[in-house]
Each structure stands twice: as structure tokens, then as C-alpha cells.
Hints:
Blueprint: E1 3-8, E2 14-18, E3 37-39, H1 55-58
Amino acid sequence: MPIYEYRCEACDAAFEEYLRASTDPAPPCPACGAESVERTYSPFGTKWRSPLVNWHRVGSSWGSKPPKKVF
């Protein structure tokens, strides 16, 4: 289940809720009980790695040079 972040318009309290879907009605504010809450933007961090890159050959960062080939 996703975590949604809300801000109460009455008391300006911020809180999080686990909800089944984004179409569910917004929960009341846990601090003051007001029904007027607004869902806020909540960024999240990801580390996407393309499956088309041989990561074991690239190294730990993009800026590093590949090892020299020794024949």
C-alpha cells in the first residue's frame, strides 16, 4: 500500500497515511479532526539501473574509467 502525505488546512499539521488507492477519501487530521486536508507532493528516491548496461564492467560510478585490457 502506498503512503500518502497530507497537510491540514485548519491547523497546518502534516501527517502520513497508508491507503489502498489514491481514489479513497482523504482521512481527517489526527491533530484537530478537521476534514479539510490536502494531499501534498512527496518525492521519493530511486536508483534506476538500465538492464542494457553491463554494470559489472562499468565500475562503481559513471565517471570512472574502465580498466585497461591486459593481453
